[in-house]
Amino acid sequence: MIKSLKNKYSSFFYLILFLLITSSCDDNISDFGLDIIPPQDKYSVFELDTVKVLANQYFYDDTIYSENYPIVGIATDPVLGRVEASLLNDLYFDYSAITNYDNKKKTVDSVKIYLWLDTIYYKNTSNPLNNNLKFAIYSLTKPIDRKVTYKSSYDISNFTSGGQKLLEKEVNVLYKSITLTFPSSANSFFQKYIDLDSAQLIDDTTRYKYGIYGLYFKPIEVKENGIIVRFNTAQTSNTYIRIYFHVEDSTNVINDSISGYIFARWTNLAGYRLYSNASLNYIKFDHSKSSVSTVLNGNVNDSLLYFMGESGLYAKLDFSNLHQYSNNSNICVVKADLVIPYDLKYYNNQNNIYTLTDKISTFSLKLIQDDKLVSYSSKYGSMIYTAYRDTSLKSYVFDVTAFVQKVFLNATGENELYLTPTYMHHLKSMFFDKNKIKLKIKYTYFK
Questions:
Q1: CB 229 within 8 A of CB 120
Q2: Predicted confidence (pLDDT) per residue in 226-261, tens digit
Q3: Segments of the chain with pLDDT less than 50
């Protein structure tokens, strides 16, 4: 009998206990217990959400050399206008494929390049069948020096002037796997590679001695607004060059081939195969509109900030207005958030003459040192200020508590941070309205 009563009322007891526990965990602040806290331990938290942050757009150069992912094409960006991307790259072959044929006469029969497209920019959505990329491939006439950081002022013709035209092709990029077959007229150029023995083939100095420097992918204008593609460098099984050749000896003919890496360099260090980017992008931008006084969808908007990965566009954010609050050394910043709303109306409007690229997912706040953008942590040791696109808030929210505290205490000479895409190796984009940037601060005073 006792056992049955216990079972009958135990569930009711646990329900009451659960309700008491959950009600005691209410997040809402009450004044219960405040009368027993000493007055000196009570601190008020104040909020500022009207601190004005000044934002202005800047860019580095109209042309850049980049060692990021290889991109090729010509397109019209709605803000920047014409964007043209060429590609210079060396070729690296696995020497083991011809080790057995050292000191033997080898003759090229044909050459093919297999490409895998990673990303398509400025895709023609109105006419999916007309997404053509047209380009030519030339031989380079000067080697790419891996020890040199090429400046925008360096003339690309130093690499390309007088190069042999090996191929011209127009392909539909919706087919991500592309095979390029070179005409027989190009065989003489590739013959230089297999004339070398295996040791010479992997030696930069020897190849350069014989005038073997690699390939130049040059985009050609098409009638439509154009297209730009990024090649995949990780899929070496889908992106490579293959030279087919034959070897004649006294008794028979041997047919074979040698495979090489187009966008990845093969090296041998302590028995390991290592790959590193062996490509050099040359990208030209029209920054004439990017101040930004942009006519987009028929509307002029002088408050827009526009960003694109490789373009070199960035914005300077001026926090000097914070100094009006920095006359009290007892101030303590509890939380400071820089809220930068993004604007998608230009992406969603179907009246765009040209297609915008995909949206940037991550932005960073940096400093400028020696005319270069560097992370905040490189100077102050604090966390790197990075924010991801928050689709629920439609904003990028940066926790800038440490920076604002330093400004309040006059502990830094920095009044400016620079907004830039975290990753530059793409042509993704984003719009901000500089008049909507907000700095929200929660602070208190201590004795």
A1: yes
A2: 789 888 776 567 788 999 999 987 677 888 888 888
A3: 1-6, 25, 27-39, 42, 266-275, 277, 290-295, 297-298, 353
Per DSSP, the three-state class of 206 is: helix
Helix (H) or strand (E) holding 379: helix 377-380
Q: Contacts from 152-156 at CB under 8 Å and sequence distance 24+? A: 152/60, 152/61, 152/62, 152/63, 152/64, 152/65, 154/65, 156/86, 156/88, 156/282
pLDDT given for residue 327 in this prediction: 63
> Domain spans of the chain?
46-60+289-445, 63-285
Domain over 46-60+289-445 is classified CATH 3.30.300: no
- Among 356, 377, 405, which residue's Cα sits nearest to residue 79? 356
Range list of H helices, 127-212: 157-160, 187-194, 198-201, 204-209
CA 29 from chain centre, in angstroms, equals 44
What are the helix (H) ranges across 180-258?
187-194, 198-201, 204-209
d(CA 43, CA 102): 82
Instruction: Give how far Cα 286 sits from Cα of 124, 133, 181, Å.
Output: 21, 20, 34
Residue positions counted in the chain = 447
Coil, helix or strand for 42? Answer: coil
Largest CA distance in the chain: 106
Could you say which DSSP state residue 371 is in? T
The token pair at 227 is 């297209």
Query: Strand runs (DSSP E) across 270-421, as ranges?
Result: 272-277, 279-285, 294-296, 299-301, 304-308, 313-318, 331-341, 362-369, 372-375, 385-390, 395-399, 416-421
Question: Which pTM does this prediction carry?
Answer: 0.77
Backbone φ, ψ for residue 86 (5° rounding): -110, 165
In sequence order, which residues have a C-beta less than 8 Å from that of residue 280 and are 6 or more positions away? 65, 66, 67, 87, 88, 89, 144, 150
Rounded distance between C-alpha atoms, residue 60 and residue 284, angstroms: 12
